[in-house]
Every structure is written in C-alpha cells, then in structure tokens.
## 1
Amino acid sequence: MALINENYLKLQAGYLFPEIGRRVNEFIEANPDKKVIKMGIGDVTQPLVPSVVKAFHEGVDEMAKGESFKGYGPEQGYAFLREAIAKNSYQDKGIDISADEIFVSDGSKCDTGNIQEIFGDDNKIAICDPVYPVYADTTVMSGKTGVCQSNGYYDGIIYMPCTEANGFIPELPTESPDLIFLCYPNNPTGTVASKEELKKWVDFAIENKSIILYDAAYEAFITEDGIPHSIYEIEGAKKVAIEFRSFSKTAGFTGTRCATTVIPEELVAYDTEGKSHSVKTLWNRRQSTKFNGVSYPVQKAAAATYSEEGKKEVAEVIAYYLENAKMMRASLTEIGYTVFGGVNAPYVWVKTKNNASSWDFFDKVLNEANVVGTPGSGFGPAGEGYFRFSAFADRENVLEAMERIKNLS
Ligand code: MLT
C-alpha cells in the first residue's frame, strides 16, 4: 500500500496564486465580454531585453552545431555565469563572495523550498506574517510543523507579525528559531529593511547559531541610497546567511527560469552531537543528486544581463515597473487609500477601506473594476485587511486599472 506524505494533508488550501487564477477564470467564463486587468501574481509583462535575446539565440545556435553542442552542464551552473554573478552582484559592490559559493538554479521559489531538505525535521522555523506563501507551505510539506490552528498559524512555526505599527519589520522573536526566513525588499508589503535592522538579525543568528534564509529576489528594485541589496553587506552575515536572488523579476525570466543561491564557505549547521558541517557541501550534494542544472542557452542569456548593454537595458525595464508603482501609489493615495511599498519594490500594499476583508475587497475589485490583485490575508493572518497590487503590468493597463478603481462605488 502506497502511503502519502501526510504533511500535505495539513496544508490549508490550494497554493495562493492558482487559487486566485481559478477565481479569475471563473469570472472570465461568466463574463467573456469584460477586459480583466491582472495585477495579482508578480509576473513580468515586458519582453526579454535585446542583449538577452541575442545571447539566448547564440546559445541555441551553439547547441545546433556538433562542435559547440553541450550535453549535461555542471549542476552548480557554468563557470562563466557563476563568475559573472560573483563579480557583478557582489565583488564590484565590495562584497566578498566567490564564484564557487554561487549555485545557479531554475528559481528562487524552488530553492527556498528545497533548501529545507538539508536541514533536520526538528528545526524551528521563523517566518514573517504576512509572507511569500512558499516559505510556510514548504515548511509544512517538509514535516517541520504540526497542524494549522483556527487562527491560520501552523503549530511549530514561529510567526513574526509585520504590521503598520512595526513598519513591517519583525521584532526579534522571544523563542530561538533555527532557521529564519527574511525577504527584503519585502514581498508582499514592498517595504525595505535598513542596515541597522538587518544587523540586529545577523547578531541574533550568530548568538543562536541559527541560519537566515534571505530572499533578495527584489533587490534590483531598490532606489533609495543606503538600503542594503545583500545580507552580506552586514558584518558577520557570511557565517549565518544563505541568500537567494533571481533573474525572474530583475530581467524578465519568470518564464525562462534562472536564479542564484549563495552559500558562503564558512556557513555551518550542526548534527545532533553538536559537530559542525558545511552547508555548502550538503547543498552541493543535494543539487548534484537531484538537479542537472539550468539549460545552457538560458545561462548564456542570464550572463548577458551583466554586459554593459544588458545592464542598461535591464535597468530601463526596472525603471518602467517602478514608474508604474509610483503612479499606482499616487492614484491610490489620491482616492484615500493608505499605501505602503512601491518605492523600492514592485509591490504596492494597500489598506482596504471600511475594514473590508482582503477577500471581500478582492471580489469587489474583480467584479466591479475587473482588476485582479492579491488579497493580503493570502500571505498570512496579519495580511488581513490589506491588498497587494503588482506593478508588473503594462503601463496602459496600470492607468486603466487605476481609473477603474477610482470609480468603484
Ligand atoms: C508573487 O506574486 O508573490 C510572486 O511573483 C510569486 C513568485 O515569485 O513565485
């Protein structure tokens, strides 16, 4: 008799974004004449930039010729890409990360979930609330939690509420977590953490021998000076942090798939006898067993984002999305919404009016304005009463969506 992984039965609902997709499809089927504008899932809309497309084509052409054809590549990623990431994203910014601490993968969503596999089931995980749902769901799937309580919290997870009152930056927990998920610029609230705030977390992790799983997927959207782009800008972080970065939002790779996980040489975790082990070695073992790397043309395309031309082109696309966010902030503020984020991130986090619940607001915006956003409560109980708009839409759609929301009853 085949037995299931019963941890899956603890999961509360379907994964958030397919659930939204299901409701939107139902609406479209019932209202085929309506033009629905999607600002829900953070999926990019602008095409790959010319330098990336050129490199992608070149990669395919190389695969088409006997003399340059490539079979399996290195599971950790091709050296040319690992070196380009280490140099451009870290070393040129004064951060000491080397190419062999970089693992190229097919996405930060996969890596932030898969990484849990190399840590024992008895680890206590701390996550923010609200939060990118992948962290909580994969923690449940990996067997590190109990059941879900009526308040929406799973037993065994340390939840750290991020509210307007604390500026959406969690307070240090009173319990000692073993693994701590942090994401800045933040998804979903669009807010950022200063160096001083991150320093508190690094010091806390050092003191508790915990590891910070730092999701920096949106770092390219930081516009304000002094905001850290990497956890490794903080002294001591290499001893206690893994960083996830992605080409998805930075360079339009949501459909192309390429990301980076950084595991410093000195990062260790412990066995039950207290003996330390290299986390990088364990992850390398996991990846070489279960992953055969990202395709060569995709890695070539990703490397092109670091060429002079590529950097300029990618920066223009990011500026376009940030301009969308700015317009959204202005329109929503003008009509009386309290708005957060959208300055250093592609997400605008809005408080609903008249204490409407997140899902009621979702239904209203969908039914009356035919605009899709993401209900804040889908990111966790503390997101109740909030709503997230993604700035990744076309400009024309952003303007139209804001106009329609202005006219909501
Ligand atoms: C989001 O909308 O929160 C993200 O785009 C989803 C993802 O990156 O998987």
## 2
Amino acid sequence: MKQVNIGICGLGTVGSGTFNVLTRNLEQIQSRIGGSINIKQIGARRDNPACDLSTVEVTRDIFDVVKNPEIDIVVELIGGTTVAKDLVLQAIANGKHVVTANKALIAEFGNEIFAKAKDKGVTIAYEAAVAGGIPIIKALREGLAGNRINWLAGIINGTGNFILTEMGDKKRDFADVLKEAQEKGYAEADPTFDVEGIDAAHKLVILASLAFAMPLQYDKVFTEGISGIETKDIDNADRLGYRIKHIGIARRVDNSVELRVHPTLIPKKRVIANVDGVMNAVLVNGDAVGPTLYYGPGAGAEPTASSVIADIVDVARHIHSGANTAIPSLGFDALSDKDIMDINDIETSYYLRLVVDDKPGVLSQLTTALSDASIGIEAAHQEEPAEGETNAEIVLLTDKSAESNLLSALAKIEKLECVQGDVKKIRVESLG
Ligand code: HSE
C-alpha cells in the first residue's frame, strides 16, 4: 500500500506541536487513516529544540518541500500572506494537497487559492485556521450540513479573551497580560492583530463563508478592537449582569449578512459569557438543530496541532481511498454573493458610559435626547462622585436601535453643556 508523505513547512509553535503529536500518536493516527503516513521532510529556517529531528530530513529552504516529488501533503505553518501564499500556490501547481493553519491567507486569498486547488483537483484543508483545537470547520461543513445556518457568534481570539479575563478577574494591566500571552505563544507575530480584532475578523469571514455558502469577503468585516476597554467597563458590566467579550458575529438578515467583530456585553447567564482565558467558543444556530456550542482551546502548540493533524488524517484517508476528486474547500458546490450590511444599519442595544456635571436635571436631559430618537433605556447607574468632585459617571443600557440612529443621538448628547467629553459606547447582544 502507498505511503502518504508529509512535508511540514515551518517549525514554530504550531509546527513543533504538529511534529511532536504526529510522532507521539503515529500508530493510532495511522490506524484511523487505514494506511501509513510519514513525515518525509521539514522546511524550517532553524531547528526547534522542542523537537527531536534526528530521524527526519530538514531543509533550510521551505520551497524544497513543495518541489520534492515524493511529498503528497504540504503542511504550511509559516504564517503570513507573502511567502506562505507563494508556497501554497506552488504546492497546488505541483499537484500537492495542502494543510494550513493560516487564517490570514485563507481569509484574504482563499477565493483564489480554492479556485486554483479545484482546477488542479487537490484539497486545501484549514481546520486549524479557526479557533485552534476546536473542530469548528468540520462541524459547519459536515456535522451541520443539513441545516440552514441562521447565525453564529464566537470568541475566536484566545489572546484577546485571555486579556479581558485577566483584566476582569485580577485587575491586571492590559500591556502586562498581553506580554504574558506573547510569552505563552498565543499572540500573533504582530499582536495588534489580536487586540484590534484583525485575527478574529480573518476567522469570522471563514466561518461565515462555510455557514452561508458565500465567497470570502474579508474586506467587508466591521472590526473594532479591545484596546479601548477599561477595567471600569468590565466592572460596570458585571454590576449590570453582563460580561464583556470580544465577539465575532455573522448573521443572516433577509438576503444580507452581518459580519462584525467588536467588544460586546453578553448576559452572564449565557454559557459563552463564561468562556475565559485562552479558551474559544463558537455558538452556531441552525434551523434544524437550534443553538449549538463548541468550546475549547483557541491557541497553543498542541491544541492547534490537533486540528492540523485532523486535516492530515482527512487528506491521507482520501489519498488512500484512491478518490480522484478533492474535498470541497467550503463544503458547497457553488457559492453566491451576499450583501454585507453596513455597521450603521445593524441593530443592537448599547452600553453607554459618560461623565456629566453632578447636578439636578442631567439624567432627564440624557433620557430626552435618547427618547427623541426613540431609544428606550433598560438600566441606568450613577457612581457617587468622590469627595470634592463635581463630575459624576453615568452608565446607561439602551434598548435596540439602528447604529446610525444611536450615533445621531450621541452627537446631540455630546453637545450638551452638562456632558464632559465623549460617550463610551459598547454594543450589547443577548445571543439567546
Ligand atoms: N493569536 C491567535 C489567538 C492564535 O490568540 O487566538 C490562534 O489563532
């Protein structure tokens, strides 16, 4: 029986995890495949002390791997969208199947890559690109294949979730927690990708295409990061019965789709509101199944390797079966464009925090400005000013409103003489 040869490109956090888990569990993995596999070659600029490479051929030029006629599956774990894109396109051109953990590459160039792979009859598998060790791609593509997906919402960046959790639980400083996430290998090479929501947007766009049979449209995702969240917002939310999470939401609204990543207040009673640390979770609501929740580690060497190896198993089984068709990249035969909604047209509730003069009549000016825009108030809280202070901080929770409507009301509120500075706004979702 043919042996399936694997070439791993990149030996960083995920590459070393993949090598070690594949080596450790090889017997069981081969039994699952029903055939043998072999790590034939590794392309890495330097060795990784976490791996014993004594039995494998290592090349410093990763392109040797895609040129090697003996390699069947190229495992791209170098990250980025420049060299990685060339590598993947060359692998496809050379007739190799590709397994990748590269969410940026799939989100930004997936349409082109998938089309080229389809023409060539090779598979592009990317389970590890979204939510680390959670098999969410397979859940959407296979487990929920009978459903019309209504919406999904996820905590899909481990670093951001780790930061918000530590800030809330231990009152730690943002920069200090971020440094720890970098040391633990959770954060991206450029950690602004984590804290500004770019990494989550990459993942969300992949999930949305799998859910709604549409081409990847990364440039249309609305993205807001967590760098503006302060410990006092986390405490205020807690007092009102909510937790703040950085959430990616993809929802069908008639013939359009919402695609947005932003900090969000979620009722504490929702399970997803209690997903802490580096853990990720994705809620998927299908018309047949109803709400389903997928939970697990969203980053780290071996959790991500778990997903990389699941793809290797799929592709190797496919090769061993002798099938001469590729596994469809997004699980649909045909995709159709959908309009992506402008953030101004999206309806949510809002948490508002503002500083006002501590004098009678202020609250009524605020409620009037909101009610003039037909925005109701669900809850209000005022912090007593400190001794000698003349300003007070007010927190409001509003009913649902279109974002454009809320923004015009806020513009009026910020012009009121009793209001000091800008109003802090965080969206609120019930996710029920
Ligand atoms: N930087 C990413 C995260 C790694 O923190 O979730 C996994 O994609």
